[in-house]
């Protein structure tokens, strides 16, 4: 018995010893080309998929590795991928790898716009990657502002964080101010932020970037036609942080001044690490309080978000659960008045850098037309702006199934709400113009009109407006002041209290199955999206002074011997719910099936080709409306005219149920010379189904009996990618054609006081251009970057419907602007920058240039070119703490980003023709300047 026991113990300990002696530890420190430790680099041991993430000293450790042959792969955004073959015997291994700079990320793996992850150099698409370090050098001004660094992409963030426009390569015609992401997909971790778009409901409402974002991948056109849901113009994918094998995080404190010393404060934070048994977590988010870049009497933005993910590393893959809670208030800037068509200058005492020209904050209640019998109201406070809420939860799975099969599955559910309470339009309305009086008191609103400051009750002016009726008798309208009081500029602001309540429950996902063969990588899959959405819009007229710091006006009609008629409520609102009424709902379904093959034709030559069949269904209805028929309005009091014109549902609904089916395809060739040079060619045929604004904005009290057109998009591109040690560049020549573009205009009927959209016109456009991206290391410490776009965009076939300012169609006409330049597409735009980093110091200077653009398709007004200079300085106090100061638009450029047309209520950009400019050389018009200077001090702590 003792001998047997002794023998078993010897065998047991021998087995344990041999097992332990066969397992070793791989460790080391990863440095960059400057000799500085690389924090957060991912170290993977293939093929067993053991991994580590470098700590604050650049160190990593992979324990308990069995003997065998392995490949160590180290990746870091902004550095070339490092690979080293290792033979593991019985001794621990210590390494000191140095990663070379890769400023254009050509050696980094990209996951956007491709069916199988691959390094950017080998992809047959034009992709730009923005790494974490570049993102942290930006002053936080919204999603669109971040994307200005990407070649081939036009962005207009002049309104602020929301109400922005983003499009690529001239695919722009339907990307209007209130639906500016029409052709592109804004994504988080591979799925769209939102499935749907319509007026004032776009994806950037529900997206905020903070420290939880690891990098951004952007693709222009090309394979977006077959890899994104109804977004052939491009994909902008914000990718969150991945697993960390050591506990750590980061806190960023920011404080700064914008415009005329308006304060901005913000805190960002992340925390992540292992949970045990190959489980990892990340948690982070931000909160901010921003008084705004322009002058308003309320806080412009406040709120934040919380994001998380929990990741399980498996043998050959991962399982990730992720979520987001967003609760945020922000607003958007409207236009500023200008004169001088050739050299625009701010007018009426306004200023391009500081004037916001928006309603001041106040609290009012407007009758809810759907619940009048309950006495219900909708609270309205313009200081709220848009209250965006998003609750999202998702599951992401990647798993090798064996025999070279790979399964990918990503899905998320979200519940969104966007409640707008803001002002829309801010045009000059002369006191001699009868418009505001009709909106205040109807046809009986003439005589002695008294204007008082709504906050203080002080009488500002008393006028006799009966002379304005001469406009309807062929004469010149006029008015007369009855006292010494005057209104600024003898006018009121043509503006509306804009209340919108939008909600959506959405389920979005994608599943694919890939098979890697000797010469083929085949992918089959499906994508889906379902949205249950509703929207309500109500517009009321607001009496506001027309001056740089607007005041609300309480307005009454005080004719001698007659009862006093209140044009406005105590806050200055009139025509309650009388300008707009839209109450609609829709179920949207998007289902797609796709197949793609990456065929290795010969060594270094690949053909990447795919098909995508998509079916999009819109099933919904829209309420018809009538004006409240009861005499005396909502309260039954004939002396309170402000509630006499309420629009309410008539009880009739116009339904729509249309399905849009189409087939898209894309094929690209990529040939790689050696390891650092590649050329590619791609041709794509994409389609863009209509968004819900087609039904919601059109068909005013008429049946919705016609489906919208599917826009057809043809694109071709030829590119070169070169990743050298000192110099790297990519350049792509492109051709884009957009057909069957539905266009309509926003109009105001002076006779009825109603606002309407003109009949839809279908048009075509074409853009050719060249985009480039380059980086040059002058010395190990000094680098230069240069990217930009040269392009020519033409409206090859374009007509505009002219309603002549009335709903009556007898005086309507159609104007042909074919072969004019496409508006808002500059012939040149570029970014030129320099970066310096040595020891603890770093700094950068960037010049952003935007070329001249046409302000409308009539080519009657040109937005001048402008430059913006951004700069920053940083200092590493120690290995955990660094401080920096960042500035944007340092020279306070007053560049003009947008054009809203003539300075009259209900006007639009397309209403300005060459004849109009010649006939009205001194007229004022509305432009939207770029955001003014901002300087921010940041303090970062990493642990």
UniProtKB/TrEMBL annotation:
Membrane topology category: Multi-pass membrane protein
Domain of life: Bacteria
Residues annotated as domain TonB-dependent receptor-like beta-barrel: 339-890
Protein name (database record): TonB-dependent receptor
Main location: membrane
Organism: Pelagihabitans pacificus
Lineage: Bacteria, Pseudomonadati, Bacteroidota, Flavobacteriia, Flavobacteriales
GO MF terms, alphabetically ordered: siderophore uptake transmembrane transporter activity
Alphabetical keyword list: Cell outer membrane, Ion transport, Iron, Iron transport, Membrane, Receptor, Signal, TonB box, Transmembrane, Transmembrane beta strand, Transport
Family: Belongs to the TonB-dependent receptor family.
